[in-house]
Every structure is written in C-alpha cells, then in structure tokens.
Amino acid sequence: MALLKFLFITICILWLIKMIVRLLLPLLFQKMVNKAQQQVNNQYRQQRQSSRSSNRASEKISIDYIPPKDKEARAADKAGDFIDFEEIK
Predict the structure, then answer these.
(1) What does pTM read for this prediction?
(2) Quick one: three-class SS letters along the chain?
C-alpha cells in the first residue's frame, strides 16, 4: 500500500511541475526576449548618437588644394579599360 501511495504522490507532483513549467517558461522567455531587445535598441541609439556627432565634425572639413595629376596617370586614364585574361592551352 505504501508503494501505491508513493507512486500516486510522485505522479501528482511531477504533473504539477509540468503544468507550472508550461505556464511559467513562456513568461520567462518573453521577459528575456524583451530585455535583449531593449539592450539592442539602447546600443542602436548610442551608435546613432555617436555617428551624428561624428557627422557634425565631418561637416567642417573642407579641401582647399587638389594636386594636379601626373602625365602617366593622365595617360592611363585615357588608355581605356584593361581586361585580365589567362591563356588556355
């Protein structure tokens, strides 16, 4: 009789644990996903703010002098497109 009582209590406890896990795990996963999403959004905002500040600094840059091209560089520009090929034997 004691064995049947032990088995019955064990089965009831395992069933209750299964039900509790079924209810709580989705809530825990949802909480974890929300937390991860919030961290990603915070990183995105910080990165966006830092890029805005660097863009402001880059707006102040101006080029005053552009050196003339060499004669060889001008000749290469006028020569046209070159195609690399391999000889097939």
Answers:
(1) 0.44
(2) CHHHHHHHHHHHHHHHHHHHHHHHHHHHHHHHHHHHHHHHHHHHHHHHHHHHHHHHHHCCCCCCCCCCCCHHHHHHHHHCCCCCCCCCC
